[in-house]
Specification:
13% strand; 354 residues; seven-stranded parallel beta sheet; three-stranded mixed beta sheet; Rossmann fold; alpha/beta
Amino acid sequence: MSKQVLVTGATGFVAGQVIAELLEHGYSVRATVRDLAATDKRAHLMALAERTGGALEFVAADLDRDTGWAEAVAGCAAVLHVASPFPAAPPRDEQDLIRPAVDGTLRVLRAAAASATVRRVVLTSSIAAVAHGHTEHDMVRTEADWSVVANSGAYQKSKTLAERAAWDFVAALPAEQRLELVALNPGMILGPVQSAAATSTSHEPVRMLLSGGVPGSPRVGWATVDVRDLAVLHRLAVEVPEAAGNRYIAAGEHLWMRDLGRTLATEFDARGYRVPTRVLPDLLVRTIALFDKTIRLTVPTLGIQERLSSEKARRELGWTMRPVRDSILDTAESLIQHGLVSAPRRAPANPAAA
């Protein structure tokens, strides 16, 4: 297989780590951005290419427009469609999320199918397309499961409908346009950011706990994955022939937000941060949610555990995950280093730890 690949949404949190993984393994990467003139948003990627000696180029292509996609995929053997909106608050109109997710995915697939060189597309989906809207919460969800759209929020609908549309599109292609599709379904993505601009909504729990933005933790939690491990899974999804036609869940054991806070407290309280470790009553959370859109996102999942299996990715692709504690602490260190968390509100207990 040619080592020329396309990655969409270059300046995003996940895409940046995927690009790093690919460059470090000898791939030539073409990456899409909305605006080629906004060089400041991709300076960290240019520096990465210099550091690794990898081949990295940028092209303009927008998921809301048809222009640019034929040129973007030209000469590529694989496309990694990573870009997708991930809001920090519920949209006023769910179609503001659903439409770009579905239409953007289909634009990328149409360009790939029309290309003379692309044979595989790796779609970054989500466990939002697997584990939501079910009435039974004690089951361990696998790749055979799909979220129930009628019972899901706007984001979950957008990911589910986009992935469904991708599988339907590929299934309907004529034989001469055979295109291999692999879907990756990550949980909440932790891990270090590459720049202050390349953050994600998934960083918000860590940021809020470190900055004292919440008095405690709602009874919410997530099955998590480290962005660096997810980047490895993207590369494996390109390289392993047998991955074609498969979905792969990328998520570890459920992590309650209170445990996230306690892990942060063990490391950062001594450095002057005051990480809240108490659990907030559900009634208080529902009251706060009336005024805080970010907290409002947590209300539908209060008390619900995300139970998922990544066994298929381990077994078929040889994929592994690092300990979640490492991911939590590396996330926090990264947010501090990039100035995304305010300075400690009190002097560190051990000045040498500051």
